[in-house]
Amino acid sequence: MTKFIQELLNITFLYYVSVRMLFQFKRSGMRIFIQTILTQLYGIGVRSVPVVSIIGILAGIIFITLFIGIFGEITGVKSIGEVVAVIILREISPLVTGFIMIMRSVTAITTQLGIMRIQREIEAMEVMGISPIRYLVTPRMVGGVASLYCLNVVFNIMAFTSGYIASYFIISLPFEVFSSSVFSAFSILDIIAYNVKIFVGGTVIILMACYYGLSVSASSTEIPRAVSQAAVSTLLFLSIFYSIVFFFTLIINEMLVSVD
Amino acid sequence: MKTSKDGIIFKVEQGVEFYVDNTVWTVPEVLIQPSEWVCFVPESGETSKDSFIELAKIFATLSAPKSGRIVLFEKDIYKISYDSLIEIRKKIGFVQSYGGLLSNRSLYENIRFPLLVHTERSYDEINIKIDYFMDILGLSPYKEHKPHQIDGRRRWQTCVARALIFDPEWLVFEDIGDWSYKAGKGIVWSYLKDQIGSPMALIVCLSQSNLLFEKWFSDLGGKIIRIFPRNNTIG
Question: Do A120 and B98 touch (CB under 8 A)?
Answer without folding.
Answer: yes
